[in-house]
Amino acid sequence: MNTTDLNECAVCAEKCNNSTHKAILCEYGDCNFTACKACVRTYLLNTTTDPHCMMCKKVWTEQFIVLHLNRSFIINDYKIHRRTLLLDREISKLPETMHAAERYKRIDVQKTIAADINEKIKEARKVLDNLITQWNDANRVLHLLKSGKDVVQEVERKKFIMPCPNNDCRGYLSSQYKCELCTLYTCVNCHELIGYQKDDPHTCKEENVQSAELIKKETKPCPTCGTRISKISGCDQMWCPECHKAFSWRTGLVDNGVIHNPHFYQYQQENAGANAAPRTPGHVVCGGLCEWYIFNNNILRKIKSGTLMPDTGVELRTYLADIHRFIAHITRVDLFAIRAKVRDLSDFEEMRCKYILQQISKEELAKTIYRNDALRKKLTEMLHLYELLSVVGTEFFAKILESVNVQEAFITEVITQCEEYDRLRDYCNKQFKAISLTYNQTVPCVSKNFVITSKKYTFTVKKVKKTAEANEIGANEIGANEIANEIAENVIIN
Predict the structure, then answer these.
(1) Which of 192, 297, 327, 416 is deepest in the core (most CB within 10 A)?
(2) Burial status of residue 323 (CB atoms within 10 A of its CB: 0-12, 13-18, 19 or more)
């Protein structure tokens, strides 16, 4: 029997059609094995391994399965089979998990003990801090008395929390809401000036109080200078335009690592060469992405201000800064996070321990394993795209740094490189769309100015006129075929 005959199934010998016996050609070009949809579905529901070709045994991608076997099959019959298969795999590992379960139980006990001790430490620390304060006060008074001076109230060391609202002052308010430069007090509730005395007559306006509350709610103070910083979207790292320090939005602590905030790039571009650490020109750490200040100092000065990207009209300098910021973020933040997540999702030992210790049921174990397995596959596909963007982007800046062209030839080369990377961005967005359609989940989307947003794509199912064939296929199959058309028309399939 010819295994590449698209008109006849190589398994059941039935004639192939466009419905339940639609011909499914193996995903891999060196195989060319063909079987009908019904036989492939039956085979996958009876195999105990990951979905694969029944001839060459190579594992099929999730996208190929959804595209050719339809989502209705994936989210119903195959989902039940897959959950059972994954659960059985983990259940078979229970005997070898017993030692880990015993260790996990001891860990739980120690966590409880440590938590109790930590609470006691917190209480003891409060008492100790209070005693230290009293001790310092007593010694201060003792020193003043011994020196024959009057005992005066110690001036509290000020913690500056926000800029002074006085337009003619550049000072900062202390925790008492007093500016030490202009000596004016500010209202705690509405953030308006009171006067030179804290109890000067003042009436808060309701709109000012609401505005102040909104500022407190939606902004956080820079840990260095106290300037209020807002966060619209993006990652955890913030950058203060006043003191030029990066900090974590979540913890409020200064971030001394690599700065990849877009406002930092804008500042560096506008102040080329300012505060740059002295390094060898063109220095690239470990062959990775070049530091921005090096590129800024050595390359951007060769590009005339006002040079625009064709079609978009974006200034070339700004465009390069956007690309570098994007590559730095995915290389130094996203890749590490996704790789760690994939590793965690591949290990179910902790879940098996919880099951052995009766902390979760078998149903909860099955749900978690299936969900984590699907998320792992999705993140793995995303990881490959991020790695592609990172590697090509790093080479992109290396080529520009090493270019020997000058003047117009150099500008042309840079624009060409930018256009090539933009095409890669467009390609990856299409692949992200394919991942979203395959897993029915939210995926990243890279905008034209290289800002990462989240997006979930949905299928547009067209109305299908009822025919005898449509009645035979059924409503689910019609929708599934439209899904296949949606992917085929909009997504590049490798």
Answers:
(1) 327
(2) buried
| Separation of alpha carbons 299 and 402, rounded Å | 10
Cross-strand bridge partners of residue 219: 230
DSSP 8-class letter at 281: T
Residue 418, Cβ neighbours under 10 Å: how many? 21
User: DSSP readout, 6-43?
Assistant: TTB-TTT-PBP-SSTT-EEE-SSTTT--EEEHHHHHHH
Residue extents of the structural domains in the chain: 103-144, 162-256, 270-421
Nearest CA-CA partner of 258 in 192, 183, 335? 335
pLDDT at residue 228 greater than cutoff 90:
no
Distance CA 95, CA 93 (A): 6
Q: At which residue do the structure tokens 């624009």 appear?
A: 415
Q: Which two tokens stand for residue 373?
A: 């397995």
pLDDT at 110: 94
CB–CB of 350/476 below 8 Å? Answer: no
Q: How far is Cα 259 from Cα 225, in angstroms, rounded to an integer?
A: 18
Closest Cα to residue 344, out of 375, 365, 370, 381? 375
Chain position carrying tokens 């110690």: 154
Note the pLDDT tens digit of each residue in 437-478.
888 899 999 999 999 999 998 865 444 444 444 443 443 443
d(CA 8, CA 17): 9
CA separation for the pair 264, 112 (Å, rounded): 43
The structure tokens listed for 216 are: 């407190």
